[in-house]
Amino acid sequence: LIEQGSPLSLLSPRQIKNYWVDGADRSIYILTTAGDLYRTYPAGTEERIINGSDPILDISASIDGKYLLIKGGSASQPTFYSLNLASGNRQLLPLGTAAAVWSPAVATEIAFYKSPDAPQALAIPSGSLNIFTVSTGKSKLLSRLRIFDPILEWKTSGEILIASRSSQNSSGSLWAYTIKANTLSTIINDQLGLRTIGADDGSQLLTFTAGSPSPRFSLLERKTDLAKGLEFTTLPEQCVFGAPLLYCAVPQIDYKISAR
Length: 260
Known about the structure:
Order of helices and strands: EEEEEEEEEEEEEEEEEEEEEE
Largest sheet: 4 strands, antiparallel
Strand content: over 45%
Number of strands: 22
Structural class: mainly beta
Helix content: under 10%
Oligomer: single chain
């Protein structure tokens, strides 16, 4: 952790899987690889909030830092719940939730995709996209969708990005769901190894595809739908948008950025 005018200091000796900063008091939440969640304060003290005996696959904080969205269980049968950090109260999202993400504008709202309650004859059964309100524990249906193994990204209040999980040997697609219009539009269709991440204002997307003969790493302008190939290759999740700059961790073997 580096602060202006201060030397480099050790934040935690633990093996860290994820972390985020509470802007109110500058405390830092740390998720360890063992599944423990700690809160570390600037003075150097810490407290354990979650014991690693309950498996945690992923964790994220609400926009105001007062709630956590926790993905537990197993990869094939996950469970999602919200945790109020002040009271310790938990709210379980509906069973069958396959993916969930915090609202970028409302601290108590979570978008989630729920798998169908019972198997259907279709190859990919129909699920639903919903909004869960933490303060009431109630859900609101947005739309019926048929997406296999979805990934949700909610960058702007009016639009939710939905991707189908893919690999080097299986194709994936990316859609934009417009909340007010209740419409689903295709952004990228049927690409091997598709991985994406969006800018906070929704104007750009970083995309990675495992194409042949080599992978392609591009910056997509949403307004014009034009994609520009970048001069290096990495994964979108290794990058951070910081307009007007883009910061990426690039493997040294792929470090071919020109002076331009």
